[in-house]
Design a protein that fits this description.
Length: about 260
């Protein structure tokens, strides 16, 4: 039996009253009310009011009905949470780790977040070497070419659907993966924990990337090192993966309260 009963009068259907009741439903679902009847019992609202609220929250993707599991918090809330985490000083917290990664590897290091159907570089530390890659902060790059884009596609399950991008035959270079080839690569990345690319977005450039997760396991960003293929080709990339993965974990630890 649920003991979380709210007492807002049901005749308040405008303004903050509606918001309070909607939040009460979200609180109930978060607390474990996964069926319609459980939500009614948890909130104390009538079935008519609860049905109206639940239907609206589902329409707005704030809760979702998952077959066999009942109501759960919806993907839009997770996107809100992801964006809220990005609004925290992610760049400020990650920057010292990015600097150390660039120093350890001798290559340029970048931090990318998803923006719709692209990725955006929110921080970058260039290599001290004369021959290096430079990605300007604020640069928008593709999701389907380059290791950072593939990491985002592999781990960010709450962004806009990217099936159309994956199936497109557009190739940035002769070795840009598309279609089933790209799908196979994306399926391997979560098991391995990192991704590599060589000449996929720009000929002569290689990179290695890993996912940065937030305190609750939510995907936040992709961290990368990139450089000339002569130093960061597909085979040589394996040498850099442990450092990139370790740095991503250190950033997560620094973000955790």
């Amino acid at each position: 039996m649920w003991n979380m009963t709210l007492t807002q009068p049901e005749d308040r259907d405008t303004g903050v009253g509606v918001l309070d009741r909607a939040v009460a439903v979200l609180d109930a679902v978060e607390a474990g009310a996964h069926t319609f009847t459980e939500i009614v019992e948890a909130t104390g609202f009538s079935r008519t009011t609860t049905h109206r609220l639940v239907r609206s929250l589902v329409d707005h993707e704030l809760i979702a009905l998952r077959g066999g599991y009942g109501y759960r918090l919806g993907p839009r809330l997770l996107r809100f949470a992801q964006r809220a985490m990005m609004e925290l000083p992610l760049r400020d917290i990650a920057h010292p780790f990015l600097e150390r990664l660039a120093e350890m590897t001798g290559e340029s290091a970048q931090l990318y977040v998803r923006s719709g159907l692209e990725r955006v570089c929110i921080d970058a530390v260039p290599s001290a070497r004369e021959l290096r890659t430079i990605v300007p902060v604020g640069a928008s790059l593709p999701l389907t070419a380059g290791s950072a884009g593939k990491v985002i596609l592999a781990f960010d399950h709450f962004g806009p659907p990217a099936d159309r991008l994956i199936d497109e035959e557009f190739k940035w270079t002769d070795v840009t993966p598309v279609g089933e080839n790209l799908r196979r690569q994306l399926a391997q990345i979560p098991r391995r924990g990192w991704a590599a690319s060589s000449g996929e977005r720009q000929a002569g450039v290689g990179s290695v990337s890993a996912p940065v997760f937030g305190p609750f396991g939510e995907f936040l960003a992709a961290i990368s090192v990139s450089g000339p293929e002569t130093r960061l080709g597909r085979i040589a990339a394996k040498r850099y993966a442990p450092a990139v993965v370790a740095t991503a974990r250190e950033i997560r630890a620094a973000l955790t309260p």
